[in-house]
Amino acid sequence: MQEVIRRWAWPMLLLLLVTWAGGMGYKLARSPRGYAHVWVYPQGEGLLLLDPREHTVLVDGPSDSIAFQTWVGFRMPLGVWNVDLVVLTRWEENITATQATLLRRIPPRRAWAPFPTENPAALAEWLRVCGEPEFLEPGLEGNVGRWFVRVLSGTPPIITFTYGHFQLLYAPQGIPAEQKENTAKATLVLTSHWTDGIADPPYLYLSRRAKESPELLQHPTVRLLLPPKPDSTLHLTTDGEHLGLEWER
Predict the structure, then answer these.
(1) Class of residue 166 by CB neighbours under 10 A (exposed 0-12, middle 13-18, buried 19+)
(2) Residue 39 to residues 106, 176, 234, 248, 249: CA-CA distances in angstroms?
(3) 166 or 22: which carries more pLDDT confidence?
């Protein structure tokens, strides 16, 4: 028996070391590696934000909960089992159901949501998973790792996500004329309705605050309208000063 143990001890130890090294390599390959990341779900239906220390923010989501779980799971760092902040901008049954399904597996530490409306079924399930939220009101703010999140408007919801000098302004239900001055402070503006009448699908504007981008080199304009790609994820990376954009399948 001891001979068998001695014979297999080193191979088993070597196998464990190889498995551990492979797992660490996979984790490093999926780590933020010094940059903050923003992924915009196809057609702008959801956001996932990540800082270099693997703090996460999840915003809204599509009606297809299975596709969204796969999308988030592919981009979450290995070994991260919680979302630091989940944001819900409207009590729509498909969005609340999608978030609730996902967050059963990766529970949130904090939750922001609008004041409840006439959808008790969606509200009850989301609250059961996420707990009592802080309500989306102007001035609500907080840090999630190195991300600074602030609510500019609760109705319609307008939220900024700031990392260093980079700022993403998220306005899924449009930007009223009285809020237009806030867009000048942002690096990127993701919205479905602009003040000049542009309507859905969501559009991304690149403002004068952007430092570096292939799109800026190709289109030397103050604010750029990026045409949406229906089946592609927009991936943004920033160190707080510079900005990179790419489309992911």
Answers:
(1) buried
(2) 18, 25, 6, 9, 12
(3) 166
Class of domain 33-248: alpha beta
pLDDT per residue as tens digits for the range 182-241: 776 788 888 765 555 444 445 666 554 554 444 433 333 334 445 556 678 888 899 888
pTM of the model: 0.79
9 φ, ψ (degrees, to nearest 5): -60, -50
What number is the average pLDDT over the span 153-160? 89
Helix (H, G, I), strand (E, B) or coil at 29: helix
Crossing angle (nearest 10°) for helices 65-75 and 93-103: 50
DSSP strands (E only) in 126-242: 134-135, 141-144, 147-154, 157-163, 166-171, 188-191, 203-206, 224-226, 233-238
pLDDT in tens, 85-113: 999 998 888 889 999 999 999 999 999 99
Could you tell me which residues are beta bridge partners of residue 167? 162
Q: Measured between alpha carbons, how far is 124 from 91 in angstroms, rounded to an integer?
A: 11
Q: Hey, what are 226's tokens?
A: 């990026």
Do the beta carbons of residue 156 and residue 171 sit within 8 Å?
yes
What strands, in cross-sheet order, belong to the sheet with 157-163? 141-144, 147-154, 157-163, 166-171, 188-191, 203-206, 224-226
Contact residues for 60 (Cβ-Cβ < 8 A; gap 6+): 45, 46, 47, 87, 88, 89, 90, 95, 99, 172
C-alpha–C-alpha distance, residues 127 and 109, integer Å: 13
Q: What single DSSP character describes residue 57?
A: E
Query: Letter for the amino acid at 44?
Result: G
